[in-house]
Each structure stands twice: as C-alpha cells, then as structure tokens.
Write a structure and sequence with these properties.
Elements (H helix, E strand, L loop, with lengths): L2 H10 L3 H5 L2 E7 L2 E7 L13 H20 L3 E12 L7 E11 L3 E12 L2 E16 L6
Antiparallel strand pairs: 1-2, 2-4, 3-6, 4-5, 5-6
Length: 143
C-alpha cells in the first residue's frame, strides 16, 4: 500500500453512518487497520453497557478497511458473513478495534477483529470476530 492510498483509506473510513456514531481511523498498514470510538450515552443499551450493535459495527467496518489495505484502489470490499463472540460487556469510555487480514485472496479475504473496552486507560478485550470479505471490482458495483 502506497502512502497516497493509505492517506485515502484513513480519510475515507469515517463517513455516513460510521461518522454519525463517532468511529474514527487510528492507524493502518498492509493488512491491518485500527479504529476508535468514543462512547456516549447514545451507544449504551438499557443496562448501561455498550450496545452489541455498536461493537459489531466497529468490528465489521474496521475489518473491511484492513482488507481494503490489500485490495487495491480498483476494488471495493463487501462483507459476506461474520461471527462475533462477546467476551465481556463493554462499559468504558471508548472502544478500540484492531483488525487484521488472516487470508488474502484475489476474490475472498478472511479478517479478524479484536475489540477492546477502554476504561480509565486500561484495555480489556470485549469481542472477537472473524469476517469473510468479498473483493469486488468497483466497475461491477451498481448503486
């Protein structure tokens, strides 16, 4: 991944829904992407924990961008499926997600996301997810 493409991905990460819920890019390198989301009361469910949907969205979107780092500018990444294990309720002040490509193919990539609950500067893994991503040429996508 060249510096120009990396800069593009870092800026492209937060838009639309992901920007609305406060997700932001932290760092990227070949096959890896890290993101962060500051938690507000709007992210919490009825018991005060971070909603599973917010955790899942952070894991999925970050996993997709880890795949983007290897896909090339002519391609898009679409999630085909994922499985997430919630290891502990998140209740801190932010979440950090670190995603990595496990298997990079021309048409399919497998990625993993680890989501950490950050509370008072201490990190505790709150979720572990694995994703199957499709690599789709941009010219084949119809909006």
């Amino acid at each position: 991944m060249d510096a120009k493409y990396q800069e593009f991905l870092m800026g492209d990460f937060s838009q639309g829904f992901t920007k609305y819920i406060g997700m932001e890019a932290v760092s990227s390198s070949d096959g890896k992407f890290e993101s962060r989301m500051v938690i507000t009361e709007n992210h919490r469910q009825q018991d005060g924990f971070v909603h599973a949907g917010a955790v899942s969205t952070l894991a999925d979107h970050t996993a997709g961008y880890s795949a983007f780092t290897l896909a090339g500018e002519e391609n898009q990444i679409l999630t085909i499926e994922f499985k997430i294990n919630f290891l502990a309720p998140a209740h801190g002040d932010s979440l950090v997600c670190r995603s990595e490509v496990i298997r990079s193919g021309r048409k399919i990539m497998v990625t993993e996301s680890r989501v950490y609950d950050v509370n008072g500067g201490e990190e505790k893994m709150t979720a572990l997810a694995i994703f199957t991503m499709a690599v789709v040429p941009k010219k084949e996508l119809v909006r």
